[in-house]
Amino acid sequence: MFQTYEPVSDRSFAGKHLPLLRAEIKKQSLDGFVIPHDDEYQNEYIPAYAERLMWPSGFSGSAGAAIVMIDQAVMFTDGRYTLQVRQQVDSEFFAYEDLIETPPDQWLAKNVSAGARIGYDPMLHTMAGVKRLQAAEKKAGFTLVAVTENPIDAAWKDQPSVPLSPVKAHDIKFAGKASADKRREIAAAVEKAGADIALITAPPSVAWLFNIRGSDVDRTPLPLSRALLNKDGSATLFLAPEKIDNQLPEFLGDDVDIRAEADVRTALEKLGASGVKIAIDPALAPSGFVETLRMAGAKIVELTDPCALPRATKNETELDGARSAHVRDGVAVTRFLHWIETEAQDGNVDEIAAAKKLEEFRAHSSDLRDISFDTISGAGSNGALCHYKVSTTTNTKLEKGTLYLVDSGGQYPDGTTDITRTTPIGAATEEMRDRFTRVLKGHIALATMKFPAGTTGHQLDAMARKPLWDAGLDYDHGTGHGVGSFLGVHEGPQRIAKAPNSQALIPGMILSNEPGFYKAEEFGIRIENLIIVTQPKTVPGGEREMMGFETITLAPINLDLVLPGLLTDDERQWLSDYHARVREKLASLLPAEIKAWFENATREI
After folding, report:
1. How sure is the predictor about 218, in pLDDT bands with cuts at 50, 70 and 90?
2. 296 CB-contact burial (10 Å; exposed 0-12 / middle 13-18 / buried 19+)
3. Which of 336, 399, 448, 548 is most buried, judged by most C-beta within 10 A?
4. Closest alpha carbon to 330 in 244, 262, 398, 419
5. Strand partners, 424
6. Using an 8 Å Cβ cutoff, are 329 and 412 in contact?
């Protein structure tokens, strides 16, 4: 089993750890310290050693921040974690703030007195993030201090060690393009931007650029690493020596110099002293690296990570791999849904048992390398926590008269999957069916969209919400995120969300389509498929070519939760056509004993 279910934190963390942290803050002559969730690489999912936000607070979510002052502490989370943060973080020690409405920099500007010394770790904050803190510093008159030793690391005596997993080659039969070709293309973009060299700090970009993978981060096949890319396409790859085997240098070739990751700062100092123009992404590069370059005399060119968009725009090999991975994954999920609907209806199965069963079905594929994130296995009221993580302390049975929401995915060498299905346990109420059908209508609206070049996901988001808005309902998460190719299950720069996003959707991008609805303390609903942005096509009688989406996820959508009368003829046809394709792709791969159930689960409506 990849996933474990013991709680990683509890409400006692604040009481136990805050005094230790405050002692270190005082030792460094600080009045407060800013704690982001991010690690030194700006990863969303982080290794255990980097859980610096969880250690003093108990909060285990994947997004958030905290400010610890000598006499108070504040926890910042967004709408996805409104309930979770109150369950995990003791209000006796932390106040709660909304990360979007009152981000840490704004809180500092309003609440910190002139003359106070506020510390931050420059390796955990980006150049752009530090600029926001500096604006608050100027407004409030406090002094911002870049610490040389993170006080959390100093106080955390049993902090786990940094992972040193072996780096492995990602075969071109999966990558679709050689690293040398990628490096030449990205180098040309760097030179066009007016730089001599680019600092690549994000592990997903390093992994993509060099066609390598690792296992330093749970659920995401990343090697923690950095790179410098020269404008001629040659490069330096910085890896801990323990991660390198005899085959890796040969795989990377003579144009790639491999050096210890500990040497990054020395390399930057030498580059700065030579006066080169170096491209950095202000939203990703640690401010500590930026300051090293500036002090050494480098000319900095601000450039959005030049690997991000090419990485997000999959080539045909990667797209075919994603389609194949979804067939295998669809078999596992379909077998699981059969198990839920036939053997887990008596109220005796719990969330952990269900999550283990799903992982067992996925493990039948020898190609499975990991799950793509810890399975969200939410029964009843737990399903209303959209980022719920089941543990032995929260484990709940799938009781009759409730809904069960399962959001899960797999990591395969040819693709990363992410799928959510909602299933009734026993009979569903009319309210549940109404809400499910509205979520389905929004899902279909997005799946069937046609749009011209230049359209952003932000412009499409409202289409998925309209059926809920019509009834005075909504949900507090994005409708779609990018997905990597045997990389992160969450990937930018594309997304479909209320928040403005300037990145246009481009053919080859993979995104999720996942509207939902959550009734606090009662139930949650989400329907999620992955979709590929298609090539522009002429619309009969039209004047402009239009792009659209190809749905690649394959598993039944529960028809017992659908109110057919709420669907239009076109929506019913889409659902029937989708299920016909699920039958076409999966029927021959499923065990004979579930065929009758499968035919009924994918029937016309």
Report:
1. confident
2. middle
3. 336
4. 419
5. 403
6. yes
List, in order, residues 6 or more apart from 19 with CB less than 8 Å away. none
pLDDT per residue over 421-457, tens digit each? 999 999 999 999 999 999 999 999 999 999 999 999 9
Q: What percent of the chain has pLDDT over 70?
A: 100
Q: Which residues of 93-123 are buried (b: 16+ CB within 10 A; e: fewer)?
A: bbeebebeeebbbebbbebbeeebbbbbbbb
Residue 494 and residue 482 in contact, taking contact as beta carbons nearer than 8 Å? yes
Beta strands in 231-357 (DSSP E): 235-238, 256-259, 277-280, 299-302
The type of residue at 149 is E
Contact between 279 and 198 (Cβ < 8 Å): yes
User: Which of 152, 156, 122, 141 is CA-nearest to residue 25?
Assistant: 152
Contact (CB, 8 A) for 298 and 272: yes
Residue 234: strand, helix, or coil:
coil
For residue 488, the 8-state DSSP code is -
The pTM assigned to this predicted structure is: 0.95
Closest C-alpha to 76, from 90, 59, 96: 96
* Stretch 156-181: mean pLDDT: 97
**Homologous superfamily of 12-155 in CATH?**
Creatinase/prolidase N-terminal domain (3.40.350.10)
Q: How far is CA 580 from the centre of its chain?
A: 31
- Distance separating alpha carbons of residues 360 and 343, to the nearest angstrom: 15
Instruction: Dump pLDDT digits (tens) for 224-276.
Output: 999 999 999 999 999 999 999 999 999 999 999 999 999 999 999 999 999 99
Question: Using CA atoms in the order 34, 36, 40, 44, what is the torsion angle rounded to 10 degrees?
Answer: 180
Phi, psi values for residue 68, rounded to 5°: -110, 115
Domain 168-306 has CATH 3.40.350.10: yes
CATH number of 313-601: 3.90.230.10
pLDDT over 90 (residue 387): no
Cβ(575)–Cβ(529) below 8 Å: no
Strand ranges inside 99-239, DSSP E: 117-120, 143-146, 168-169, 197-200, 212-213, 226-230, 235-238
DSSP H helices, 470-529, are: none
Q: What distance in Å separates the CA atoms of residue 456 and residue 466, rounded to the nearest whole number?
A: 18
Q: Nearest Cα to 350, choosing from 388, 419, 399?
A: 399
Alpha-carbon separation of residue 519 from 61, 493, 525 (angstroms): 20, 30, 9
For the chain, which residues make up each domain, given as ranges?
12-155, 168-306, 313-601
**Cβ of 50: how many Cβ atoms within 10 Å?**
24
Determine the residue type at 513: N
- According to the model, what pLDDT value does residue 44 have? 86
Which residue has 């255990």 as its token pair?
48
The yes-or-no verdict on residue 79 having pLDDT over 90 is no
Measured distance CA(325)–CA(552) in Å, rounded: 9
Q: How many angstroms separate the CA atoms of 228 and 293, rounded?
A: 13
Of 236, 228, 207, 235, which is closest to residue 278 (Cα–Cα)? Answer: 228
- Same CATH topology for 168-306 and 313-601? no
Helix axes 287-296, 264-274, angle to 10 degrees: 40
Tokens 């690690």 locate to 39
Check residue 470 and report its DSSP letter.
T
